[in-house]
Amino acid sequence: MRLRFFLLMTVVVTAVTVAPATASASFVHVVSTGESLSSIAAADGLSVYQLAAANGLSPTTQLVAGETIQIPPQQSSSSSGGISMASSAGDGRNDADDVGSTATTASVPVSTTSSGGAYVVQPGDTLTGIAARAGVSPRALAADNGLAVNGVLISGTVLHLSGGAGASSSAASSQPVGAVAEGSPTDPPYPTPERVTSGQVGSIAADNGVPATLADAIAWQESGFNNDLVSSADARGVMQILPGTWQWIQHSLDTGTPLAPASAADNVRGGVLLLHSLLGATGGDPAMAAAGYFQGLPSVQQHGLYPETQQYVHDVLALQRQFGGGG
Fold first, then answer.
1. What is the three-class DSSP state of 204?
2. Partners of residue 158 on adjacent β-strands
3. For the chain, does the N or the C end have fewer beta carbons within 10 angstroms?
4. How many helices (H) and strands (E) does the chain have?
5. Three-class SS state of 327
């Protein structure tokens, strides 16, 4: 989880940009250096929100060169689905690529403001994925909308979002970095000779409002699902958690029950709780959440992404596609 490389699996992701045959066809675009959601959307006659919605991203997601973006078919305003509202201000990062101050009408897939909002279910959506982007638990989202947690979502259904990710997301700004994150070498978590599976990681992630594919990608990138791994920086277990970070997770995030210090499952749960907090603090942006997991969100906010972090994020997003997330 610290600044180091532990790539157990080489991922080669190749994609070919295919020009759309007609305005009604969708196609894949490979992100080039310097491109953003807004620049790609403008080139294809879309709003940032439409492009973000088509890829399950936040409108302020920072793209990584080499990843693929699905370009949806252009739609006229008269046939556009979803809920129309004026575009809101940026998320506080003051990105040059944020939507301008001129109000536009667009289909906004998720509102993550504290006042809540609504979301129109898209084909392929899951309750867990929507909940993670909205910063709420799947159970809370299901309860607010009279749904079963494991029920089937129908495309076109309008979900009410209660808003806000709560204390766990705001706590991400206090995520420890450096010596504080390292903590004491005698403190937990403790490595154990256990391995977990993708299914186990995904189940823990789903229970805590984190996309299973993102948790799987982080767990594989960090340790290859091996709870016996200890890095040169003293990060430990499946999710490679430093002792100081473990203590912070225990005391600053809502863990429900205390984390068992010598449990592979609870090592995963600790990492997933951190991911949930980071997703809430970044508007559900998996790239920024991965960057915060690796570098520490306060460091990312202060210094931007280090080159090692950019590579880590690229690798995690590629792995997430391998585990079935997006693409």
1. helix
2. 120
3. C
4. 13, 6
5. coil
Please give the angle made by the CA atoms of 129, 135 and 140, to the nearest 5 degrees.
Answer: 80
Domain boundaries, the chain: 168-322
Task: State yes or no: is 222 an active-site residue.
Answer: yes
SS3 170: helix
Reading the block at residue 67, the tokens are 């990843």
- The DSSP code for 61 is P
The per-residue pLDDT string of the chain (327 residues; one tens digit each, 9 = 90 and over) reads: 654 433 344 333 333 333 333 333 457 788 888 888 888 888 877 777 677 767 767 667 788 887 888 887 654 333 333 222 222 222 322 222 222 222 222 233 333 333 456 677 887 778 877 776 666 677 777 777 778 877 778 877 777 776 544 455 567 778 999 999 999 999 999 999 999 999 999 999 999 889 999 999 999 999 999 999 999 999 999 999 999 999 999 999 878 899 999 999 999 999 999 999 998 888 888 999 999 999 999 999 889 999 999 999 999 999 999 998 655
* 92 Cβ neighbours under 8 A, 6+ residues apart: none
C-alpha angle 294/67/235, rounded to 5°? Answer: 15
Q: How many CA atoms lie within 13 A of 237 on its CB side?
A: 25
The catalytically annotated residue of 35, 67, 194, 222 is 222
3-state secondary structure of 18: coil
Give the predicted TM-score (pTM) of the model.
0.55
Q: Residue 107 CA to chain centroid, in angstroms?
A: 21
Q: Is 207 helix (H, G, I), strand (E, B) or coil?
A: helix
Is residue 293 within 8 A of residue 276, CB to CB? The reply is no
Q: Which CATH number fits domain 168-322: 3.40.190.10, 2.60.120.200, 3.30.70.260, 1.10.530.10?
A: 1.10.530.10
Q: Alpha-carbon torsion 192, 198, 199, 202, what sign?
A: positive
Q: Which tokens is 97 given?
A: 């690529």
